[in-house]
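Hi team,

Filling in the usual template for the complex we talked about on Friday. All components are listed, including any nucleic acid strands or ligand strings, so the model treats them as one assembly.

SUBMITTER: L.P.
PURPOSE: interface mapping
COMPONENTS: two
RESIDUES: 704
SEQUENCES:
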Amino acid sequence: MSENMKSILSLLIFPGGLAVMAAGMIYEYIDRKLVARFQNRVGPRWFQPLADFIKLLAKEEVIPEGIHPVLFQWLPVVAIAGALTSALYVPMFGVEPAFHFTGDLVVTIYLLSILTLCTGLAGANVANRFSIIGATRTLTQLFSYEAPFLLALFGPAIAAGSWDIAVIEQYATSHPWLMVFQPIGFLVALIGLMGKLELPPFDAPEAETEIVSGALTEYSGRGYALFRLGRSVELVIGLTLVAAFYLGGVANPLLFLAKTLGLLLIIAALQSLFARLRIDQTVGLWWRSGAVLVLLQLLVLIALKYFGVAI
Amino acid sequence: MPETKHGDKFIVPIGPQHPALKEPGHFEFTVDGETVTGASVRLGFVHRGIEKAAEERTYIQDLYLLERICGICSHVHAMAFALGVEKLAGVTVPERAQAIRVLVAEMERIHSHLLWLGVAAHEAGFDTLFMYAWRDREKVMDLLEQLCGNRVNYSINVLGGVKEDVNDVIRDGILSAMDYLETRTVLYLKLVTTERTLIGRTRGIGIMEKQTAARLGTVGPTARASGLERDIRLEAPYAAYLQYPARIVTEQTGDLEARFIVRVKELYESFRLIRGILSTLPGGELTTKMPRRIPEGETISRVEAPRGELFYYIKSNGSDKPDRVKVRTPSINNFASVMATAVGHKLADIPMILSGIDPCFSCNDRMVSIRGSEGQQAVDWEELRLYGIEYYR
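RESULT (copied from the run log):
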């Protein structure tokens, strides 16, 4: 009974569920504030993400004509469910993952992709031309960053010799920072995370000056709120994963905060430094340099492992 | 302009309401995947009937009305009208007034080009440059407010001169702001020529050859970026441009990068002109006596607005109201170039090509009646008035 109770608590309150949502909103605020300050703006107040969320929840959800209404309403729910579930296998807030099993790294990465996939489907579901182009771009971008991102997270896994996030994290904690030995993997993982979250300069799928809001153009109210929250949640989870793998693990809440916020600072700076990449430039960047480099690094790692060199 | 091919093509509508457009206009782009295969434009959503309204008002009232044609280049409209009316009346405006007109025109050019730099950067998804450019634009807006009392519709012109004088405090303020803006402009020029992601969005995009630019009748920085040496300040110097000659800035490549460079380099030219005017500002009166009734006749008046040649035709019938005022703003000349260069580009490049000409929609919306064309719907003034009364009853 207590075991069940514990599972439910970790699912709904901590470290999954509410805690991750709250963290997502706080990180979204910090990100927005930092970008605003870099751009010489004032930026939002601390409760703005929460206020946006409540406002969107209170609004009428307009369901456009000529679509599949069930898909339209449930895609955001599936998207945020995927993001929240993946939080259970990640050492959120510097505590042990709620659940872990061999191979949960692969499961987590795919759970994180559900949000993007749902966004793409949501855009393709409606008969809006901006949405359809946005959906095409979202899925194109998914195919360009996903493989390099996956390979970048496999680097530490090979070094640790395990597919279990908790085990890899322990390996990272007890060894020097993997960022030093696998710099390419670290960069690709961090920039891949920006591509995953469609942050500038990888915001072609929702480039407002071209296609309004991309795949989510027709969304208002609850659905939009859930998609946005899902993205904030993914931001925290993604930062935690990168910090746990490449920055020497997140052994306690203090280390967690310091490392993820440090990464967030880098991400915010990168967001304000560049002009938006066209979708063909994004694909070119990932497949011409990102994927090739990270693949090379992975091959070197496997070779070293094969010949028994300690890494 | 190429026709839109309807049928089973995928058409992306941009406008009348769209985040890329700051004013309403309607564009239809036929796309094949991400590549644009056809483009068409429809303008006229913000037709305001200003030319007709100008005939109902006196010359003095018209000055205020015409200044409101454009919110960005308001001074050049008033200046073009005032220069035309003064020519009709045979009045010579004092030198100091002419110099102050040019001073305000150049400050307006700085504000307009910085605004454009921000908008174009925003279209490219480079919001940091957008915010920076607009922050620096505030400097020159504040100076204009200090000098004229207004940030947008400066209202410094009167028929026969200008209203406000430049005192020492304002002069020092302008000079120090010019020094600051010059250091910022160095940064912007470096940004638009070296920032790799921005160059990826501008270099080789929307290339317009010199011949095409000439054939389409482009004006202003858009023409100058294609190597066409067109600048009214040099071709037909007006106001004080004879005493303070401008130097032309041209680029040969004709792509978006060239349009960025031309506009940023023109900022330097404006700084130089402003410094020149302030160091040798002629003394004397600000205004001269102007007759209320303008002698019968007609004239044209051309000035170089930030976007290119601004053309005024004024016809007087000897009363205190003009018989006809015709305005041609630079944007209408440049629109054809968007349609000509858009085809073959990626959809993502379209907002950039569109903003590359610095379009000003409400300025160029005119009623044009083509003689002999079929399906004309013409109403006369009285009918229109009655229709309006009926509509809002």
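MY TAKE: The mean pLDDT of chain A is 86. The interface with chain B takes residues 38-41, 129-130, 133, 136, 200-201, 203-204, 207-212, 272-281 of chain A (CB under 8 Å).

Thanks, L.
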